[in-house]
Design goal:
alpha/beta, 7-stranded parallel β-sheet, 9-stranded mixed β-sheet, Rossmann fold, 386 residues, 14 helices, Dihydrodipicolinate Reductase, domain 2, single chain, 2 domains, 18 strands
């Protein structure tokens, strides 16, 4: 089968390197507007099944030409741009996968896109990275060990730092800025509601070495996916640690209108302020060998087992130093790309039969967990009687 990796940043390259060794992949095309990193990967892997193409993923015609002979396209651009790829995939009847759904929510747009994919006879695997992705699978696995699951909450913790930089992102700067700029979704008492951006926080105890950190509720796929995949849930949320420097910067940028997604006129050119800020930040690829610290996430599912309240706590993590030494990337990117690669492998092997949009909760959790373990992630779990 021919697989196209469209978007060769830190996360996309991890996914591509995993898939380069899979027996079902006859041809792997690495496509991006900037091809230096893709060419470096192709040289390192040294496999004649790998090709590199210079493609602007925001140009529908260019994407359509790219997908002419493609069986599966993996879109790993900033999540809003992936909508372009999904639309072309449906038009060309090409199966699709991404690391974060290209929608603000699982509302009418999501349902319409799912219907278009079903009509085209394709699967659109959405949210198959780390969070969403691995986090959702953790939750489904945990819920399966309870008689009834009532709450599921995801907590992302990170101690990453780079000498000489006060602000940076280990993943897409555009996606980070976007996450801090929009209302946070929470699922409470069986219904969604929204909180002002960066307005709701609490302290959370992560496993060491991350430790106790302040986490903020933000808008994330899991809040929409988890109630769909685990219908008994009454509460669900996503919570992420964002350091004080970013919190302060986001507050100022928001007040100045610089986190808006709509273009503004600058000397006759239409530009999004958020894109300018993201472009001024260091590239995650350039920082991969300089980040120090640890990245981890925890999923807590609470419910009942044998008539008693019980919480299942599942987590994984990786040090940035270890990620660079063993995998040549940063810890966050390795976890995102590994989640995407496992979902892609399951699809290529015929383990995903559904058509339309497919969320991580619909994958077989035990197969998924076994695969991420074989790729180097350590999964830990504890059960707490309440």
């Amino acid at each position: 089968m021919e697989v196209v990796q469209l978007g060769c940043g830190v996360c996309g390259l991890v996914c591509a390197e995993h898939l380069a060794h899979h027996p079902k992949v006859d041809r792997l095309v690495l496509a991006d507007r900037k091809t230096d990193a893709a060419r470096a990967l192709a040289s390192r892997v040294a496999d004649d099944r790998i090709a590199v193409r210079e493609v602007d993923g925001t140009d529908p015609d260019a994407v359509r030409r790219l997908l002419q002979d493609c069986d599966l396209v993996i879109a790993s651009m900033p999540w809003r741009l992936n909508r372009i790829v999904l639309d072309v995939a449906a038009q060309t009847r090409t199966d699709y996968l991404d690391f974060g759904m290209p929608f603000d929510a699982t509302g009418p747009e999501f349902d319409e896109a799912s219907a278009r994919c079903r009509e085209a006879g394709i699967a659109g695997l959405v949210g198959m990275g780390m969070e969403p992705g691995i986090s959702d699978v953790f939750a489904v696995h945990a819920a399966g060990t309870l008689d009834r699951a009532e709450e599921a909450h995801v907590f992302d913790g990170d101690t990453g730092a780079v000498e000489g930089f006060e602000l940076f992102s280990a993943w897409s700067p555009v996606d980070l800025l976007d996450e801090m700029s929009v209302p946070a979704a929470v699922y409470e008492d069986g219904a969604l509601r929204f909180l002002p951006p960066m307005n709701s926080s609490r302290m959370f105890d992560f496993p060491e070495p991350v430790g106790r950190r302040r986490v903020f509720k933000t808008n994330h796929d899991e809040t929409y996916f988890l109630p769909r995949g685990i219908p008994t849930l009454r509460q669900a949320s996503f919570n992420i640690h964002i350091d004080d420097g970013w919190v302060q910067a986001a507050d100022v940028l928001r007040k100045l209108g610089l986190l808006r997604g709509e273009p503004v006129d600058v000397r006759g050119m239409r530009v999004r302020p958020m894109d300018v800020i993201a472009a001024a930040l260091p590239s995650p690829l350039a920082l991969a060998d300089r980040i120090r610290g640890y990245a981890a996430f925890v999923v807590e599912v609470t419910g009942t087992k044998d008539g008693r309240r019980e919480r299942v706590r599942t987590w994984t993590g990786l040090s940035y130093g270890e990620a660079w030494r063993q995998h040549g990337t940063n810890a966050t990117a390795f976890m995102v790309g590994t989640g995407g690669a496992v979902a892609a492998e399951m699809f290529l092997e015929g383990r995903v039969r559904e058509k339309g949009l497919v969320i991580p909760e619909e994958l077989d959790p035990e197969t998924f967990l076994e695969r991420i373990r074989t790729k180097g992630l350590v999964v830990r779990e504890e059960r707490i009687r309440l």
